[in-house]
From TrEMBL:
Residue ranges of the TM segments: 25-45
One Pfam family per UniProt: DUF3108
Organism from which the protein derives: Paraburkholderia piptadeniae
The protein, known as: PROLIN-rich signal peptide protein
Domain of life of the organism encoding this protein: Bacteria
Organismal lineage: Bacteria, Pseudomonadati, Pseudomonadota, Betaproteobacteria, Burkholderiales
InterPro entries hit by this protein: DUF3108 (IPR021457)
Assigned keywords, A-Z: Membrane, Transmembrane, Transmembrane helix
Annotated stretches, region: Disordered: 75-165, 369-407
Length: 407
């Protein structure tokens, strides 16, 4: 028979054990609550971390003109440069709305000696009228440069927007991934006025090199891609084919096809198409002027509205370069992917900087580093209508010690 003392002792032991179990449960609950709070905070931060990143002030576009794809202007071989080519800027100005009738030009190699003194303003032509231009050039001697001949050739010219293909060149770029410098990238660009070739190479950490190539010709609407090839790191190639005979766009990534509209571009030929249009008439692209491009990717196509933001200074490892800033506007509601391009007149309007911003805030940036093979602004095999001198092809460097501008 147990004593009251034994009963009291057992009850005390059981009470202590119960208290210990309760304490452990309480601590476990506290730890679980803390872990849950941290998890919720982490998820919230992941979804809203862009809020804490310094971003440029919100740009509210003020559209002053909307330009759509249209034919480029051509002129017969032997006709002199238009008399209004140089005074075009003061004549039109930024205040007056203009008709975008600017020109695609290419000097014929056989006429280069006869026009040596006027090399800064070569003869206009385009791939769409090459046969007519060739016969016209053969029928007319070098004396066509006389002042009265241009009017005789006028019926053979076709009106349209001015267009001047940038000079060929291999350019090197500093590349940044979320502001961290990586290995240099390159843009290889060549054109003879009939065809073009563009290869963009961007090395990225851990995933390998991203390469994009566009090959095509020049037609009545400017650059006309024949094939676009995209290769991201170790993944296989995605090929987009532009069949100009059947007016269809085909993909290796999907069996679907798209209709091929006039003036269609791929993601990178669009940059050079824009550069060619701006190079043809820089004064036509004032802040607020927006031009539409139909752009295909590796499985789809859509309209890209590209707005002129204005003239800015791009800081590079070689100093500061004056450039004109263009930005792709949102294509649809909640479109957070953004593309910015800075074209530099001192580089023949080739890109001085490119930035692609993903919806999650990731940025891939290219900043001009230098020339592997400098663009030859007097190359007679290239389509050109400006009067840039060899010396002016070098960028205006004003700050040798400046580092690349961060996104």
């Amino acid at each position: 028979m147990s004593s009251p003392f034994a009963v009291r002792t057992v009850s005390h032991v059981q009470l202590s054990a119960a208290q210990r179990r309760s304490s452990r449960l309480r601590w476990a609950g506290v730890l679980a609550a803390v872990a849950g709070a941290h998890l919720i905070a982490a998820l919230w931060f992941e979804r809203h971390h862009e809020t804490f990143k310094p971003v440029a002030p919100e740009h509210v576009p003020v559209q002053v003109a909307l330009l759509k794809p249209e034919r480029i202007e051509t002129q017969a071989a032997g006709s002199p440069p238009p008399a209004v080519a140089k005074p075009a800027a003061p004549k039109h100005g930024a205040q007056k709305p203009r008709e975008h009738a600017l020109t695609a030009t290419r000097p014929r190699p056989s006429e280069a000696p006869a026009t040596n003194e006027a090399a800064s303003a070569p003869v206009d032509t385009s791939a769409a009228s090459d046969s007519a231009v060739a016969s016209s050039a053969a029928a007319r001697p070098a004396a066509n440069s006389g002042p009265g001949i241009g009017q005789g050739n006028a019926p053979q010219a076709t009106p349209g927007v001015k267009f001047s293909v940038p000079p060929s060149g291999d350019l090197q770029y500093d590349t940044f991934y979320n502001g961290v410098r990586n290995q240099p990238g390159t843009i290889h660009w060549t054109s003879d006025g009939h065809s073009y070739d563009m290869v963009v190479s961007v090395p990225l950490p851990f995933v390998g090199t991203f390469s994009y190539s566009s090959h095509g010709h020049v037609d009545a609407f400017g650059l006309a891609p024949d094939q676009y090839v995209e290769k991201r790191g170790r993944r296989g190639e995605d090929v987009t084919t532009f069949n100009h005979d059947t007016k269809q766009i085909g993909f290796t990534r999907t069996p679907d096809t798209l209709a091929l509209p006039d003036g269609a571009q791929d993601r990178f030929s669009m940059v050079m198409q824009l550069a060619s249009l701006v190079r043809g008439d820089p004064d036509a692209y004032q802040p607020g002027v927006t031009r539409q491009f139909y752009v295909t990717d590796n499985d789809s196509g859509e309209i890209w509205p590209i707005e002129t933001i204005g003239d800015e200074t791009v800081r590079t490892g070689q100093g500061s370069i004056d450039a004109r800033h263009f930005m792709r506007l949102p294509r649809r509601e909640n479109d957070r992917r953004r593309i910015d391009v800075w074209l530099a007149p001192s580089l023949g309007w080739l890109p001085a900087r490119l930035v692609q911003t993903e919806p999650n805030g990731t940025q891939i940036e290219l900043v001009w580093r230098g020339k592997l093979a400098p663009p030859d602004v007097n190359d007679t095999s290239s389509s050109s209508s400006d009067d840039t001198s060899p010396d002016s092809a070098q960028p205006s460097v004003t700050d040798p010690g400046a580092g690349p501008e961060k996104p």
